[in-house]
Amino acid sequence: MKEVLLSIIGAGPAGLAAGLYGGRAGLKPLLIEKLSPGGQVLVTDWVENYPGFPDGLSGYDLIEKFASHARLFGMEELSGEIEEIQPVDGGFELSLSGGEPVFSRKVIVATGAGPNKLGVPGEEELTGKGVSYCATCDGPFFRDQTVAVVGGGDSAVQEAVFLTKFASKVYLIHRRDSLRAIKILQDKAFSNPKIEMVWNTVVESIKGKDGVESVELFNRSEGRRWELKVDGVFIFVGIRPNTGFLKGLVDLDENGFIVTDDWMRTSRPGIYAAGDCRSKPLRQIVTAAAEGATAAYAVEHDLAMQE
Ligand code: NAP
Asked: Catalytic site residue 134?
């Protein structure tokens, strides 16, 4: 069995920052990731609020910089999906799907979060056939077409603006009469002539045979129901943490996010958490990176205290 001092699960900004700090601390961290480094940042077409990059850069370019920086300080990488973390004498045994288990004295969980589903008829059947959770991935398929974006947070508004690069018309459908997104994003959406706001409205179903043809909408303040013809539906109604494999092992909040202290320590000594999977008020690349650094620092500190 491979034995390491520190394994980091997940290669988004939190995991890669932990890899960088863990590497510089001489811990030779092992980063375990299902696919290639990235996380949610990879589906963000443009990042303009990461300090030090005033001109902005693509999510892909930023994550490449994170990964190569961490590799420079000795972070190792292993491809695999964690099935279970088992507490054993002196650390943890990590079971990976289709791979050798890993023994690790400390574990940083940086598994991030994935998109919520709307849970309406047609959504599942038409996913990949016009229903999407990633504008960067699927936006170019909707050149000169009409799309609906559902949600009112930063993701929905940012991606609605992005989709206007391709689509001829973007309906932004939100269940209330004001957006949750930050003002700078709201201003961009309101001043974009291709975006039409559809307030106080929920999507009741998504219709289509081989692809999306329309959405059935319900305006809650007027009690009005109608059908809107669209070619695609982009859903951004919040995120859920990738923490299912941790149930019973560490404390989670009511929404499944991991509860930690200021050092990123979870309720289970030896397991730390950083990034979007953690229970916290602000989910940004910069906060994920900072938490990854803090978690690696805590690991270094706790290992030293045990020696
Ligand atoms: P979010 O902030 O939780 O917003 C989710 C939106 O979806 C809300 O407007 C919510 O409506 C709506 N919603 C939730 N469930 C719904 C349902 N069943 N039907 C219809 N609408 C529903 O999620 P997010 O926008 O994905 O952002 C996640 C995190 O990433 C946030 O912390 C955000 O700040 C961050 N983020 C930041 C940036 C950036 O800085 N540029 C970009 C993307 C994401 P209500 O408003 O009525 O609750």
From this structure: yes
